[in-house]
Amino acid sequence: MAEDLEQTIQRLKELAGDVPLGWDRPRPKRVYIAVDKKDAREFARMLFEDFGARFATATGTDIGEELEVVYHFECDAVGLVINMRERTPKGDPVVPSITPVVPAADWIEREMNDLVGIVFDGHPDPRRLILADDWPDGVYPLRRDKKNDA
After folding, report:
1. Of 70, 85, 95, 137, which one's alpha carbon is 20 to 30 angstroms from that of 24?
2. In terms of Cα–Cα distance, which of 150, 36, 67, 78 is closest to 16?
C-alpha cells in the first residue's frame, strides 16, 4: 500500500532528526522547515537523496536585516511541498550552495546571487546569470536597500 500524507510527514520528521530549528505546517500539504545555514547542504541532500523529494525551485528574499533562502521540494506521490528555509545576515550574505548535492539548483542560486546578493559558498559556477557584466557591484535589484531606490 502506498504511503499516505501523515506517514510521509512522520518519515520526514524521523529523517530530519534534531537538525531543524523549527517546523511550521500552515496547510496540510505544505511544510516549512527552518535550518541553520551550516546544516543546509546536508539537509537538502537528505531531502533529495534519502527522502526522495524532487527539487522544484528556490526563492531569495530581503526580509529586513536578514536575507532568506527557501528551497522548495515536492513529494509528488502525496502532494506534499517541503520548504527548507535558512537565513543569513545582510552583513554576511553567505550560505552554502546546495548545487553540489542537488545539481538542479545551479541556475536559481546564480539568479538569487544576481538579484538579491546572496553568495552561495561552494557553487561550481558563480558567474552572473541575469545581470549584465557591467552591472554595478553591490547593487541588487530585489533588495530593499536605499542605494537601490531609483
Report:
1. 95
2. 36
